Amino acid sequence: MDLFVAACEGIGLAIATGAFAGASGQRGAAGWLLFAGAVIAGGALFGLALETEDHPAWPGWPVGAALAALSFIVVRDLAAGAAARADGGGFTSALIALAALVVAGLSILFGLFGLLALIAIVWLYLGRRRRAASKYEGLRTLR
How far is CA 6 from CA 48, 99, 135, in A? Predict the structure, then answer.
């Protein structure tokens, strides 16, 4: 496996780590602990994916940490919104955690799957940001 495929595998593992930790939708102290764990584990897994293919691990640590942080924030907000609309949202959180495990497994089996996971997280992030910006657009025009 070459460096590109190992990096794609690391991308998928880091995103899956952040998504798994963010699936609970926790905020506050518990959310910060999950965030810290996801960032550390995401960086370590990205570095490990590079190291297993005889590449230095250190470039993967900051990239994996950043991807895990992005994934955590997007998925946490998504899970918290789903829990607010549903009663409890435990089933939704379980489905999100299961999807994160599937992403991790597919990234290990098919390294290039990590790119699809990256595209999906960025698409979710941009879509949620766009909707949040246009949410109160009608009220701004009344002034």
Answer: 9, 21, 40
Alpha-helical segments (H) within 23-136: 28-51, 60-85, 90-109, 113-134
The 10 Å Cβ neighbour count of residue 91 is 12
Give pLDDT tens digits for 45-58. 999 999 988 899 99
Q: Which residue has the tokens 């798994």?
A: 20
This prediction has a pTM of: 0.87
C-alpha to C-alpha distance for 85 and 79, rounded to whole angstroms: 10
Phi, psi of 88 (to 5 degrees): 95, -55
* 8-40 pLDDT per residue, tens: 999 999 999 999 999 988 888 999 999 999 999
Do the Cβ atoms of 69 and 79 come closer than 8 Å? Answer: no
Q: What are the pLDDT digits (tens) for 123-133?
A: 999 988 787 76
